[in-house]
Design brief:
Radius of gyration: 14 Å
Number of helices: 5
Order of helices and strands: HEHEEEHEHEEEHEE
Distance between the termini: 28 Å
Length: 161
């Protein structure tokens, strides 16, 4: 079961969270609609390659990752979307495209858009296309220790994902 690693980690750290089961959905906006979660409150995990290493960029479902902004902020030589081939094997307990934004569990950096800090809670895929986890953002921040930067833009930005 995909949720088991995440649930074990949250339970071990005595974190309160809610698991929301829903019909199968493959897009963040679809999940937001099914679970009645506003798109700006649902976090989507976008896999990126930063100078050849995998990392997670986490933005509200209603926005996109600005790859140029991420590159500039980090002073990276290269930032691009990771292909499914590049990241699929790193998440053996997750369905492809449903990774929770817990890079600390998978040995990778996590970059979170600053707008997600404006909400008391964060909701995200829990390793399957049928489960969502909702928890306090402060707990997420304390466990994952993401780098919080402005990295999201509106849907129509040409260099965004």
């Amino acid at each position: 079961m995909p949720l088991s690693l995440l649930r074990e980690f949250l339970d071990r750290n005595r974190i309160q969270y809610l698991v929301i089961s829903h019909s199968v959905a493959y897009t963040a906006q679809g999940i937001a609609a099914l679970t009645h979660t506003p798109g700006q409150e649902l976090a989507k995990t976008v896999m990126v390659m930063l100078d050849g290493r995998l990392a997670m960029a986490v933005v509200p479902a209603s926005l996109r990752v600005d790859l140029n902004r991420l590159k500039k902020y980090l002073g990276a030589d290269g930032v691009e979307l990771a292909s499914e081939f590049e990241f699929r094997g790193r998440f053996p307990d997750c369905e492809t495209g449903s990774m929770p934004p817990f890079g600390n569990l998978y040995g990778m950096d996590v970059f979170v858009d600053q707008t997600l800090t404006e909400d008391r809670e964060i909701a995200f895929n829990a390793g399957s296309h049928r489960e969502l986890v909702r928890m306090r953002f402060a707990d997420f921040r304390n466990l994952v220790k993401p780098v919080i930067i402005p990295l999201a833009v509106g849907k129509d930005h040409s260099h965004a994902a």
